[in-house]
Amino acid sequence: MDNLARAYLPRIAGLALASVSFLAVSAAEAKEITIWCWDPNFNVAIMKEAGARYTKTHPDVTFNVVDFAKTDVEQKLQTGLASGTAEALPDIVLIEDYGAQKYLQSFPGAFAPLSGTVDYSGFAPYKVEVMTIDGQVYGMPFDSGVTGLYYRKDYLEQAGFKPEDMQNLTWDRFIEIGQQVEEKTGKKMMGLDPNDAGLVRIIMQSAGQWYFDKEGKTNVTGNPALKAALETVGKIMSTNIYKPAAGWSDWVGTFTSGDVAAVVTGVWITGTVKAQPDQAGKWGVAPIPKLSIDGATHASNLGGSSWYVLESSAEKAEAIDFLNEIYGKDIDFYQKILQERGAVGSLLAARGGAAYEQADPFFGGEKVWQNFSDWLAKVPSVNYGIFTNEADTAVTAQLPALTQGTPVDDILKAIDAEVSAQIQ
Amino acid sequence: MTNGIGRAAGGLLTYGFLGLMAFLSVFPFFWMALGATNSSIDIIKGRVLPGAALATNVSTFFTQVNAPLVFWNSAKIAILSTVLTLAVSSLAGYGFEIFRSRHRERLYRAMLLTLMIPFAALMIPLFIMMGKAGLINTHIAVVLPTIGSAFVVFYFRQCTKAFPSELRDAAKVDGLKEWQIFLFIYVPVMRSTYAAAFIIVFMTAWNNYLWPLIVLQSNDTKTITLVISSLASAYYPDYGVVMVGTILATLPTLAVFFFMQRQFVQGMLGSVK
CB of B124 within 8 Å of any CB in chain A? Predict the structure, then answer.
């Protein structure tokens, strides 16, 4: 072995040197853009499609889409940025909107600003807000979690409600309807996971507020929208119009099994709702109910993510041009990802395409995508700040107290104390 | 009479408790096996009966995952890690026990202290080192940090205490050099210690997650644990496929354990007779 190695080592080394110089030459022409994202059936597949489209017009640029679990992408990004090892980072990375400000503010200069290049006026304003710091915009808005009220027409009809009755609801009216649905059909109105603050977030953002104000200061005790959201969730619990769910899968089970009459959540659930062919024609979609306070709207958001280009990237210029060409302009691309992956992008002009125009027989011929696109433009902009996840944990911890009838003001104080303790 | 009842009750209690514990440890495996035969929706609904989706799950797994490559990556890392760790750390454990020096105990204790440092704290410096060495996204970078294992050194030192010094003396009289004593006397005598350590190190290397995750960057270097993690974290994971993956990922460690079970038990009890 030793002798063998000794005999061949010079040759191997020579070969390696030769191939390195060969690679260096070819690298000047061919560029590979590395991208990290997390769902093989969703953003990974979509990014591969986007890459294929770009390579068609730019044959010298190829794409390497690497998928890790979402928490793994965050872990790797954090380590790569913290260690300052540039070659360990991708050229483009997907970041969830709730966490975007944390990365942008913790690692100033790590992400490339796209302000001059991308025309942000064409995107849903609230998506642009989450990636803006001091007037500079850093990302390419991707999928939206614009919310809707999905409801079972058949159950509601049995309870005496027509689709018109489901439009422009208030939350109080929604709860009244829920009580009547249970009385007449025996079905609960909605599934609710007592350990998930998603509904609180939806209701709060629909009135243009968040756990943090525009300056990033904690906005809990004096936040009328958060208060009203907690009161609403408390009322849903005390009137018992919900079916409790333990965890995400169980929650999904509440409506796929036909046990509940309505679902309030992000548009990305559409694929799951439609995965039950026996329920075709039985579903309708309406705007979510609204609070009865100042600034309340029927539009909100849950989840969603966006693409960011790393400043350290050797292919920075190509990466930015790629995002701008495909995600910033290609209407046809948005039709394809909507049809194949159920992805609602944030580019408002996409609504003019064929897929968005189509009426969906599953929803009784409603033009659901046009509706979602309308609501998308109306989602109030808020500042998700750096500590959304911490605040969320604090809210979740207080949800049981809500069921036990603790006054909402006390709960707000407890949340405020916990958030302040966590972020110091 | 009362004594008999007491004994019966005690037995019942013992077996009841053991049965419960056995159930708790076996049920996840049972659930995993059942899950592989059910569709994702049935798994979510909590179905505890075998289903008919095994073939679909298996074929989905093999179309979504480049299984030969991924298993080859995992096997390469696990076997390299295990062999190198055993070679280096057993030598160190042997050395610590056999050779006396002034600073031996101090050095040994300092080494044991490193067991207290969580890996997460070492991760970033280690990552910078690997970056400087140009080893990011290589399997060498995964294997290297595992080789000097304080735990395995400790384990071998403990077991070496039972290694009879007469054997060494006899070997010396027969004219063997130190490295020959280690290789031709020590290693064969400590077979079961090696077997036990092999299982432990192999399992750790095969299941290793955090460090490979950080240091491996592309689809073609990924190990099976990373692939399963990414399958399981999709927005709508196909749990049936995840179960197929976990079963396949469990098989190698199971096989290693069954092949070496006898030696493993001996190794745990103390190897030299």
Answer: yes
